[in-house]
Amino acid sequence: xxxxxxxxxxxxxxxxxLGTIGYLSNPKKAQTALYSGGGFGAISICLGVxxxxxxxxxxxxSLFLVTLFSLLLIWRSVVVWKAxxxxxxRKAFVGSLLALMLLFSVFLLPYLFQSWR
Length: 117
What we know:
Layout: H1 2-25, H2 31-52, H3 58-85, H4 92-116
Helix pairs in contact: 1-2, 1-4, 2-3, 3-4
C-alpha cells in the first residue's frame, strides 16, 4: 500500500504543477486550470496519505475519483482539440496540458485497480 500511496502523492503533485502552469500561461482565463489541477491534486495527496495510513475506504475512493477526473479530462480535451482544429491555435498549449494530465491518469488507473482487487 505504501507504493500506491506514493504514486497518489506524486500524481497529486503533478496535477498541481500542471494546473499552476496552465494558470500562469493565462491568469485571466485559465482559473479553472488552477482549480481543477490544484484542487484535485490536493485531494489526491490527501488520499495518498490516507492510503499510507491504512484507511480502508481511501483506495476505492481514489480509484473512483481518478476515474471521474479522467472522464472530465477526456471531455475537456475533446472540446479544446476541436477548437484547435477549427483554427484556435492558441489553445494548443492548454490541450497539451490536459493531455498530459490525462496521460498521468491513464497510467495510474490500472495500478489503482490492480491494487484494490
